[in-house]
Design brief:
alpha/beta; single chain; 7-stranded mixed beta sheet; 706 residues; 5-stranded parallel beta sheet; 16% strand; elongated
Length: 706
């Protein structure tokens, strides 16, 4: 019994095998009792029959245990029991009056427990019909039943039948309850282990975020510094390879970390008010640079009635749109990428369902790769295209972020034709104003000129939304003819056509009238008496032109943000990593800033006792004394309370900015630090008297107008 009990509670043995042995033990015990009872009652034939069945079943049990054929043994047992043994016992033990019909129920229960799948359903139906047929034979009066009990025998026989049937059911239920309780305990222990494992992995990845991004900051930073001193362009190609590879690796690291956060449920939304035009503009400018390098045409379609100001998680929305658009652009060479965005407001106007579609004419995926796009990155296969694995990871991360905002994502692709990704998500509306407002605008006439018929027609579609009549010119001759015929309120010229048609522009033409549509290779100084607007033309930059917001946006000065130096500026940089310290120091010194480096918090505290810098850049994670403690110690001295302290962090938590500011930092820079981010910090926190623009007579202009 001890061995049997140990076997029945052994969780390493499959559940149905244990049930089979349990039922077998009960069946053999019942058969032994039945044999003894039948012999004592003088029913020698019945006793021999029952004993024969018991012997056959014992052989079946030994065979199944010896050879592990439990499935075959279970089926054999059920048919032996229900088709032969119980019906024969029914006929030879008094039938209904002997209470033998009570044994039919345990027979069906054992079939239900031991068998599974289609064979279980078929067997239950067959046995039920067979039992009904047996009972009908008895009722029909064919005198097939033997040994019908009378008087006291009738009561005893029925009592035994009821007891044995109920005992079997209770025995099985009790055993299943024990197994279920043991299973719940093990599941609970497994869940606790999984939670602890998830917490450990989360802590590990949080720490690795800093450890991975810190050297990436050094690699990217040093590559940029080498690029600046590479005047002979002898190693520029090699530097570009290093820089591009490092950027790709950094992006992959960020995706892996975000995937882990989504998987562990650590990702959270952080809602704040943001302007849609600023968000989209920054994404489009970055994508256009990549599109230019790939020779790809980029078109952006924005619904005019989209809300202007939203309340939502700007960082996650920006990450989703940037990932999807940049993915399409980077995978499309000499092709075309179209991004269309729209919004459907709720009836009360408090929320909007933002929808988007990005299509490209890139390489596309085969049907097999498309079916496995979401799980291809989860298993290693050296034969698989790494591009597909990375795409699968990016789409999975984007889909997870969208689902946090009640959104969804669908990706379709056709080999050698292109790909399309559609997405949607909910966002709160902070202001009912729409992206495009043409109220009060009178109809005007504009001219769009360029060599690309497709691009010029796209411009015309955008321009028509501003109550304009848009003419187009695809050649120098057409441009000359159109200029002579009509007086245009605005003229848009492709930068590639400008040199050919500038002789037709009237010398008295106002600068606000003519706009050159250029790319990253063009600067404002390249065009005489014209303004430069970056392609692609969208509702955003056209709204700034037609709605008199051009100066507010600082389009012209934006090109010169990096074209300034700092006068009499002292900055302290604190970082325990020697390479990162050198990168930050060299970057700041390129703005003629005097930099005092500190390789620990203790050194920084000592420096601040003797000098008062304009800005402090402080690494967040350092040995000995961390960035938060160092910053708080420095600001504890009232002489340093007004010094801006900017945190340098590799942390990717959603609420990192709020946490750092709550701890006392004035702002933060994510690692690896970028030129434009550093420039923004300098412009935001240095006095205007310390900003000196180089050339074009724009000294102090940005700061004075801000």
């Amino acid at each position: 019994m001890k061995k049997i009990n140990s076997f029945l509670l052994n969780d390493d043995v499959p559940y149905r095998e244990r049930l089979f042995v349990l039922v077998s033990v009960y069946a053999l015990a019942t058969i032994m009792i039945g044999t003894v009872v039948a012999a004592a009652a003088g029913l020698a034939g019945t006793a021999v029959l029952v004993f024969s069945f018991g012997l056959a079943y014992l052989c079946l049990l030994i065979f199944s245990i010896q050879f592990g054929r439990f499935e075959f043994a279970s089926i054999s047992f059920c048919y032996l029991l229900n088709f032969l043994m119980l019906p024969i016992m029914y006929m030879f033990s008094g039938g209904i009056k002997g209470g033998m019909e009570y044994f039919f129920i345990p027979g069906l229960i054992e079939t239900f427990i031991l068998l599974e799948g289609a064979i279980k359903v078929i067997s239950l139906i067959f046995f039920s019909c067979w039992y009904i047929f047996i009972i009908c034979l008895e009722v029909s009066g064919l005198n097939l039943v033997r040994n019908i009990p009378e008087g006291t025998e009738f009561i005893i026989s029925n009592a035994i039948a009821v007891f044995c049937s109920v005992a079997l059911n209770l025995f099985i239920v009790r055993y299943q309850g024990i197994l279920l309780k043991r299973q719940n305990i093990k599941v609970g222990e497994a869940m606790d282990s999984c939670r602890e494992s998830a917490r450990t992995k989360s802590r590990f990845l949080a720490n690795m975020s800093h450890e991975l991004r810190t050297p990436m900051n050094a690699i990217i930073g040093m590559a940029k510094l080498m690029e600046k001193v590479d005047e002979g362009n002898e190693v520029s190609d090699e530097l570009n390879v290093i820089k591009d590879t490092a950027e790709t690796l950094l992006k992959l690291i960020n995706d892996i970390l975000m995937y882990s956060k989504l998987e562990s449920g650590k990702a959270e939304t952080v809602n704040e008010q943001f302007y849609f035009d600023k968000l989209i503009n920054s994404i489009i400018l970055e994508a256009q640079d990549a599109a230019f390098e790939n020779g790809t045409e980029l078109e952006v379609e924005l619904s005019p009635d989209m809300p202007f100001i939203y309340y939502g998680d700007e960082i996650k929305i920006s990450r989703i749109l940037t990932t999807l658009l940049m993915g399409a652009v980077e995978n499309t060479e000499n092709g075309r990428v179209i991004m269309a965005l729209g919004a459907e407001r709720t009836r009360d106007g408090s929320k909007a369902r933002i929808t988007g579609r990005i299509t490209d004419t890139g390489e596309g995926l085969s049907k097999e790769d498309l079916e496995n796009i979401y799980n291809g990155f989860e298993s290693y296969d050296s034969k698989k295209d790494s591009r597909i694995k990375i795409l699968g990871l990016e789409l999975t991360v984007c889909r997870g972020l969208l689902e946090m905002m009640n959104g969804e994502l669908h990706y379709d692709s056709i080999k050698d034709v292109g790909s399309s990704v559609t997405f949607s998500f909910d966002c709160f509306v902070a202001d009912q104003d729409s992206l495009l407002d043409t109220t009060g605008r009178e109809s005007s006439r504009v001219l769009a000129a360029g060599y690309s018929e497709w691009e010029v027609r796209v411009w015309c579609r955008r321009l028509n939304e501003f109550k304009t009549v848009a003419d187009h010119a695809l050649t120098e001759e057409e441009f000359a003819s159109q200029i002579k015929k009509s007086d245009y309120s605005h003229i848009f010229i492709d930068a590639a056509m400008y040199d050919s048609v500038k002789k037709y522009l009237d010398e008295t033409t106002e600068k606000e009238k003519t706009y050159i549509v250029g790319d990253i290779t063009h600067r404002f100084g390249d065009f005489r008496k014209c303004r430069l607007v970056r392609r692609p033309l969208t509702l955003i930059n056209l709204s700034d032109i037609f709605c008199d917001r051009w100066n507010e946006k600082e389009y012209e000065n934006a090109e010169d943000v990096g074209n300034f130096v700092c006068r009499d500026t002292l900055v302290v940089v604190v970082d325990d990593n020697r390479v990162n310290l050198k990168v930050a120091q060299n970057l700041l010194e390129s703005y003629r800033i005097r930099v005092i480096p500190a390789d620990s918090g203790f050194v920084a505290i000592g420096i601040l006792r003797n000098v008062k810098p304009d800005i402090i850049f402080m690494d967040q994670v350092m040995p000995g004394i961390g960035g938060v403690e160092t910053m708080q110690e420095i600001k504890y001295d009232k002489r340093n309370a007004d010094i801006p302290v900017i945190c340098l962090t590799a942390d990717l938590d959603d609420d990192i900015k709020e946490n750092l500011i709550e701890n006392g930092f004035d702002d933060y820079l994510p690692k690896p630090i970028r030129d434009k981010q550093v420039e923004k910090i300098l412009l935001d926190y240095l006095p205007s008297t310390k900003i000196v623009y180089k050339g074009m007579g724009k000294t102090g202009r940005l700061r004075d107008e801000a």
